[in-house]
Predict the 3D structure of the following.
Amino acid sequence: MIKTITVCGGGSLGHVIAGWLSAHGKAVVNLLTGRPGQWHEDIDVDTPEGTVLRGHIARASSLPQEVIPQSDVVLLCLPGFLIAQELQRISPHLHPQAFVGSVFSSTGFFFEAFRILNPGQPLWGFQRVPFISRVGVYGQSAHLLGYKDRLHLAVENVAQRQKESFAMLMEDWFQRPVCLLSGYLEASLTNSNPLLHTSRLYTMFGGENEGRIYPRMILFYEEWTPEAADLLIRMDEEFFRLLGVLPVTQGFLPTILDYYESHDAVSLAAKLSSIRGFKGIPSPMKEVEGGWGPDFSSRYFVEDFPYGLRYIAQLAHDKKVACPLIDKVLEWGMSKAGRG
C-alpha cells in the first residue's frame, strides 16, 4: 500500500504539493531539501477559492538516507540542471518498488533516470506541473494560484495494470482527472516551457532586440507580444513535425493554438496575457546601466534551453526532421545561458 511520499526540492511546487497532499490526508509527506532547518512542521497553502490548507511535514532532511528508504513514492520538484545530481544522491537508498517521478518531465527526467537508476526501478512523471504556485514565507506558507483541468502522466518499468493503478492513485491525490500516456516520450516532449519560454526570450532579447535595454521591468506573460506568439506558433509547427515521426500517440498533445484556444498570433498573445495565474510574473531581467536588461543566469535560461529545447532539437536531428527556427533559438539561448 502506497502511503509515504518524499518531495525532493523546497521550491514553490515543493511547498504547494507537500501542503496539498498532507492537508488532504493523502499521504505521509517527507521533504528532502538543502534547507531543512527553515521548514516548520506545518505549512499553510492558500487557494484560489480563498481557503487555507494546513499540511504537515513528517520529516524534513538534507540527507537522503533519512527520508528515502521508507518512501513509496519519490517526487522530484527540481529544475532540470539538478535532476541528475539528485537521482545519483537518492539511488543507493531507494526501495526497489518505490515509484520515482518528476513534477515536470520535459527537463530530461526520464532520460537521466534510465541512465542513473537501477534497471526496473518504477518511474513516473507529469507532462505538465499540476499547479501554478508561489512561495509565501519559505518553509511556512505558499500560494496555490491555479490548477490544471486534467493531468497527464507516464509510468515506466511496471506492468500495465500497475501503471493504471498508479494513475488512479494520482487522480485521487491531486483531485483532477488523470490521463495515462502511452510512454515516457509523451511526458518528456512538450510544447510548454521549452517552446513557450524560449520563444518569448528570443523575441525580447535576441535577433533585432539583441543588446536592447528596456526602461523598466517587463512582465513576462501580461505583456506577451504578437511577435513572440508568432515565433511560438512556428516553433510549435516544427515540433509537431518531429512528433509525426516518433512512436507517440497521435493527438496526445494539443498544439499551442488548441491548448490556449486561439487561432492566430494576435489571439494567442491576448490569451497568454490574460491568464489569471500568470499575472504579475516578471521577465528574467536585472537592472543595468540605463535601465533593465536580460538576466542570463535566470532559470529561464539555464533550464529551458539546455534542459528543455535541446532534447527536442537533438531528437529532431536524430530523426532528420528540419527545425531551423528551433535550431536558431536554441543556438542563441545556449550562447547566453549562465552568463550572468
About this structure: The longest helix spans residues 226-243. The mean pLDDT is 95.
